[in-house]
Amino acid sequence: MSAPDHILQRRPLTQRRDCASPSLPCLYLSSPVHSAVVNGQKALLQRLITDDPRLGNWPDQFGRTPLMYCVLADRQECAELLVKARVDVEKADKNQRTALHFAAKKPSNPHSAR
């Protein structure tokens, strides 16, 4: 699988303040799709995966997919968007962990419904 041109333009990890939460810095990761997830930029994520559906399953350097980043960054709305776009929810990273593995390792939220 060859990378789309915009994926090959990797950016260093930097911070900006124009993301979903103005009080927190935005992080640019290894690809625009991963950055959109972590920063809660649902509209950008939608546009990226609409333009190129392969990006919904695009792995970073560790094999982590955007769905895994949703779990790690607590971005439920982005996760729902990816699942509706029919990403591979069973795709594993280089350590054979799936998004479900990451979710199971997260501490439980005391405010969530049980």
TrEMBL record:
Keywords of the record: ANK repeat, Repeat
Record carries keyword Protein transport: no
Alphabetical list of Pfam families matching this protein: Ank_2 (PF12796)
InterPro entries reported for this sequence: Ank_Repeat/CDKN_Inhibitor, Ankyrin_rpt, Ankyrin_rpt-contain_sf
SUPFAM superfamilies noted in UniProt: Ankyrin repeat
The keyword Repeat is assigned to this record: yes
Protein name per the record: Inversin
